[in-house]
Amino acid sequence: MNQPSVILERGVEAYALTYAAMQAFTNARTANTPDQFWMVEHPPVYTLGLGADPAHVLDAGSYEVIQTDRGGEVTYHGPGQAIVYLLIDLRRNSSKKKLFAREFVQTIEQAVITTLRAYNLMGCRHAGAPGIYLTEGNLAGAKIAALGLKIRGNGCTYHGVSLNVDMDLEPFSRINPCGDASLLCTDMRTAGAMCNTAEVRQRLTANLQQLVLTHAYSLDAS
């Protein structure tokens, strides 16, 4: 029988410490290790995905730039951002032998969309650009959540999703977010939502837990 999942609140923690802990957890886990959802907030940092071009960091200033093993391009993490890392054994949730990573990504994105709706904000996906974008008002098209994952060959995942809640958005202007110089990043507060980061992080985690752990994944090479 599968172990119940664990929600872990890590508080404010340097990105490098969380990154190392995710790798260590994944290295040590067994078929019986409970899945975990880590809630965390990072001091200001830029992170690069495996496909990132460092030139998209235009001016890091005093902020650290860290190369990671997640997918995707460059992004910014900082105070006022609801971050949830998903340490999931996808084969455990699968009725088939293979895992369809795209479905897993879409499930995470749906959890963000569901969370935004609770604050009367409408979000959507953009084909070929993981994450969630606002659909209404003068911020339509702005990115409000970023997503990057590492899925190992054994089906175990880490990294996750970050939803911008109430941030200093200036650091986004020092990068080409996701490698796109024209992309505007925003947060829930700027879009008119009355909320706090801890509350949103709890709601997002609950939505992720419900959707991810009840989904049956299939694996496809595409």
What does the model show?
This protein has 222 residues and is an alpha+beta fold. It has a single domain (6-213), classed as Bira Bifunctional Protein, Domain 2 (BirA Bifunctional Protein, domain 2, 2-Layer Sandwich), CATH 3.30.930. The protein contains three helices and ten strands, in the order E-H-E-E-E-E-E-H-E-E-E-E-H. Strands 1-2-6-10-9-8-7 form a seven-stranded mixed β-sheet, with helices on both faces. A three-stranded mixed β-sheet has the order 4-3-5, with no helix packed on it. A hairpin with a 5-residue loop joins strand 9 and strand 10 (157-164). Helix 2 (101-117) packs across helix 3. Residues 218-222 have low confidence and may be disordered.
In whole angstroms, the N-to-C terminal distance is 31 Å
Residue ranges: pLDDT <50 for 5 or more in a row? 218-222
The tally of domains stands at 1
Q: Could you tell me the number of beta strands?
A: 10
Record the strand order, biggest sheet.
1-2-6-10-9-8-7
Mean pLDDT metric:
92
CATH class: Alpha Beta
What kind of sheet is the major sheet?
7 strands, mixed
Describe the protein's topology.
Elements: E1 6-12, H1 15-28, E2 36-41, E3 45-48, E4 64-67, E5 74-77, E6 81-87, H2 101-117, E7 123-126, E8 129-134, E9 143-151, E10 157-164, H3 197-213
Parallel strand pairs: 1-2, 3-4
Antiparallel strand pairs: 2-6, 3-5, 6-10, 7-8, 8-9, 9-10
Helix pairs in contact: 2-3
